[in-house]
Amino acid sequence: MDGKAHANIGVDLESTQATIDIVKEMAATMEEHRQWLTRLDSEIGDGDHGTNMHRGFQAALERLENTDPASPSDALKAVSMALIGKVGGAAGPLYGTAFLKASGALAGKEDISARDAAQALEAALTGVKQRGKTEAGDKTMVDALEPATEAAKEAADSGSVADVFRAAADAAAEGAEATVPLTAKRGRASYMGERATGHKDPGAASTHLLLDAAARALAGS
User: Fold this and answer.
1) Contact by Cβ (8 Å): 23, 69
2) Which of 31, 128, 194, 203 has the smallest number of Cβ neighbours within 10 A?
3) In this structure, what DSSP letter does residue 134 have?
4) d(CA 35, CA 85)
5) What is the extent of the structural domain holding 126?
6) Is residue 125 part of a domain?
């Protein structure tokens, strides 16, 4: 991290504006870590993940400004459309699907509970697994998102929305780190075979960063 300051966002996920503020923090995080994610991707992929994710979230911010979403679900759908349209390679459809499925899980809701948030993450995971035909252990973003979802569901039983995202982010960090010794079974890295071992999956890394951004936004840090 380069020490770049993040916006001081004291929010919870009970409003459309809160959702937009979380996306703003995600966009700032993608900008901050763009070079690091690109470096990870250059080791086992096309070397453009950081650039693509930064471009996608900048487009998401523009779309949110232009569409004036009326609900958290609408905001997440707008992000989905931007990511699908602007993020290249496999990441665009996968992250776009994640946000689209989360949007669907929150449809019709204005006040989002901890359980709603966990269900949105679960819907995102299901969508990513179906779209990418991936499972945990394939050395993809699923290796971060699946443990994140399980941790979120556990935290939702007794915690707040902020607790849900903090638990998810912490579990995603461990999941991303666990991709280092894995042999890739999906994506560009799978073409490298054993040469991909010893490298962290960039999709798992960016998944952790996005969840951590949401957690920090909710905590007001």
Assistant:
1) no
2) 194
3) -
4) 21
5) 16-219
6) yes
Structure tokens at 203: 């999709």
Where residue 158 falls (left for φ over 0; alpha for ψ -120 to 50; beta otherwise) is alpha
The answer to whether the beta carbons of residues 40 and 49 sit under 8 Å apart is yes
For residue 163 the two structure tokens come to 């607790």
Distance CA 220, CA 11 (A): 6
Q: Quick check: is 2 in a domain? A: no
pTM for this one? 0.89
Please report, for the domain that includes residue 165, its CATH number.
1.25.40.340
Q: What is the pLDDT of residues 153-212, one digit of tens each?
A: 999 999 999 999 999 999 999 999 999 998 776 655 554 555 457 789 999 999 999 999
Token pair in block for residue 98: 């994640």
Rounded percentage of the chain residues whose pLDDT exceeds 90: 71
Q: How many CA atoms lie within 13 A of 38 on its CB side?
A: 14
